[in-house]
Amino acid sequence: MRSIFAILFILGLFKHAFSEEGYCSAPSGLSTDAKAKPLYWKVNSPTLSPVHLKDLPGFTRSVYKNSHALISPESHVYGPLPDWSDTTGAYLISPEMGSHFLMYLAKLKDNSRSGLPLPGVERLFIFVLQGTVTVTNATGVSQLLKVDSYAYFPPNFEHSIESDALGTIVVFERRYSPLANHIPEPLVGSTDKHPLLETPGEIFELRKLIPTTLAYDFNIHIMDFQPGEFLNVKEVHYNQHGLLLLEGQGIYRLGDSWYPVQAGDVIWMAPFIPQWYAALGKTRTRYLIYKDANRSPL
Ligand code: UGY
Ligand code: MN
Fold this sequence. Notes:
Elements: H1 2-19, H2 41-44, E1 63-64, E2 68-71, E3 79-80, E4 88-93, E5 101-108, E6 121-131, E7 133-137, E8 142-145, E9 149-153, E10 159-162, E11 167-175, E12 187-190, E13 205-208, E14 218-225, E15 241-247, E16 249-254, E17 257-262, E18 266-269, E19 275-280, E20 285-292
Antiparallel strand pairs: 1-2, 2-18, 3-4, 4-5, 5-11, 6-9, 6-11, 7-8, 7-10, 9-12, 13-14, 14-20, 15-18, 15-20, 16-17, 16-19
Bound molecules: (2S)-amino(carbamoylamino)ethanoic acid and manganese (II) ion (MN).
């Protein structure tokens, strides 16, 4: 009889252990309904902190150092965007950090309208994360951009970005570095229209969203990793990066620090910071990454 009680007691303990949140019940990361969700839904509805740390006051994964920064969604600070009407934005990477470019999120609603970048500054990439936006040039030609679509606006190119309803975009800007006889043209495009490119020595899937001609002083790549895949090259290079994780999760190595990262996270990488990524979890990682290119570092 005593042994039956002992068994029931132990079973009771197990049941308790497996049902209590945060104790023997770490979230599996298995998202069975992920397929039913809109593209990039995690960026627009990020997990603000790991479940077991949600109620911990002051907890953030964000880090800011001279050589890199990780800005996770729970530390985004939104405010009015100067020169834009009815738009709120969060500057996530800016020259105050040491970068030569600006990266921010902008949330548009039905009366929103963009302002123009400063003279000589290219709005080198806008990418739609949620909703739709309309881009219009000086002659009144408009194009509707949906989630996963993007545009490039050369320096001193008159244009506006508006939305009929709600739209969230990520924006990159930098002072254009001119090159004699090369003039960048405005562009619009969409990720799914780009072929997968060869990546000799690597296994991730690569799409280049900007023409690789010398007119453009940067590139924007979309990189996809299946869970378990990682960068082969432990990269160290003179270029800077601004990165937005669109899907998935994994570990980013930046210098001597190793960071758990997930969709919605933004990373700034200074020149020569050692960098490496491995995808984990059950779904692919997709990230959007800016890199200065096509100009001599001198
Ligand atoms: O092109 C790049 O430098 C890219 N592979 N870097 C990165 O993913 N951190
Ligand atoms: Mn790199």
